[in-house]
Amino acid sequence: MPNLFNQNPKEGMSDPPTATAAGPVLLEAIDNGVATLVMNRPEKLNSLNNELANALNLAFERIGKNEAVRVVVLTGAGRAFCAGGDLASIGKGREARDSKQLEPILRAGMGAMLRMRMIPQPVIAAVNGPAAGAGMNVALAADIRIAAEEAIFGQNFSKVGLFPDYGGTYFLPQLIGPSKAAELFYTGDMINAATALQLGLVNRLVPGAQLEREARKVAAQLAAGPPIAIRAIKQTLFGSDKDALSKAMEAEVQHQMRCFASEDCLEGIHAFFEKRAPKFEGH
Questions:
Q1: CA 62/CA 174 separation, integer angstroms
Q2: Distance in angstroms (rounded) separating the CA atoms of residues 44 and 255
Q3: Buried/exposed 25-59: b ≥16 CB within 10 Å, e otherwise
Q4: What is the pLDDT of residue 22?
Q5: What parts of the chain have a pLDDT lower than 50?
């Protein structure tokens, strides 16, 4: 697996002979049957904008058709896995009462999460830092999650008056049950990696310095396994999810657009950037 973890995005992708750039916001390399995808907006904590959401969507579509790929590793550049939606961009749209930029991000995310879950290859999320909002749900869409001890997780949509998206309302209750999922959704509180492990949100927890090595080890083990059997197992585990997941994400888009139009959303975004508690009025 080429060393894409913590790669300096300014260095480009020319050194590893098998590496390609899926776009400046997403780095991609394939080696020994392992495809590595690195969300590459480190200055924005890899927050999701339309470009990154579309790059993920296209990458999973392409990888799913590549018989040479046996496993996928997804991680983030820099100190974060993915901090969720790009709130600065979303905030500008809300100020202008313009939803035209938000819905395409949600739709691209729908496609990316559905493809990640439905491609034949197992997907490992190597969670190297904060995974918040949609970023947490990107991790939840993976088959296996390996987290650094420094990682934190949160469904912090309610903090800014928004609705969970990117499949969170489908994935989270499946993993931890509806009651605990409700608590995380309602409060928007962050949890540390140890709590995530205890809840069953992550499969393994390792010191940050060992995350890359552990992800490589697990990926190599899966890549060396019987691809026909492993793909059949994934199909059996998740293949029936397609219609239910699509329906859940469509509902998420509709609820998200309604919440986006609310005054509570505008207040939540203002409070976030002003570093104060929001005052939600239910409008």
A1: 28
A2: 26
A3: bbbbbbbebbbbbbbbbbebbbbbbbbbbbbbbbb
A4: 54
A5: 1-2, 7-20
